[in-house]
Amino acid sequence: MDGSTSINLTEFLYPLLILIGIALTLALLLLGWIVWRVRRINLPPDADWVTALRATPFVVVLVLDLLDFGLDFLSAPFAWILLSYLGLKPLRAVTTIESLIPGTQFLPTMTAAWVIARFMKRERLQVRG
After folding, report:
1. Whole domain around residue 53: which residue ranges?
2. Nearest to 117, CA basis, from 17, 35, 47, 22
């Protein structure tokens, strides 16, 4: 086999490790800002995850995606604690499931879900009596 056609694994891993380090650093900085600036979010007791996403500031879902990218499945406990602190308990299960699915760490799934939740038409219940 020709040496020029072989793939050097370090050429692939080094940039990936740099990206993961940048994601973790940015996530920690944003996490500090969230704890400092974002107050507890008051949701109705029967709120579902879509309602919780609508009430969530964008920076929170960004941090969740950055943690997922940087830590993969190890981000679940950090996300659980952050969402509990912010009063976003309906999002805990969604975030945990998403972080445990292999291969999703490269996709900003919480950010995409946040955008979809923001642009979905709200269903209005009409009471006829």
Report:
1. 8-119
2. 47
In a domain, 23, yes or no: yes
94-128 core/surface letters (b: 16 or more CB in 10 A; e: else) = bbbebbeeeebbeebbbeebbeebeeeeeeeeeee
Q: What is the pLDDT of residue 41?
A: 84
- Phi/psi at 4 (nearest 5 deg)? -75, -20
What's the token pair of residue 52? 């919780």
Please, is 10 exposed, middle or buried when counting C-beta atoms within 10 Å of its C-beta (0-12, 13-18, 19+)? exposed
For residue range 23-45, list pLDDT tens digits in order. 999 999 998 888 888 877 888 88
Indicate the DSSP class of residue 127: -
- Using CA of residue 67, residue 69, residue 72, residue 76, what is the dihedral sign? positive
Is residue 128 in a domain?
no
Q: Are 50 and 89 in contact (CB under 8 A)?
A: no
Distance (Å, whole) CA 90 – CA 78: 15
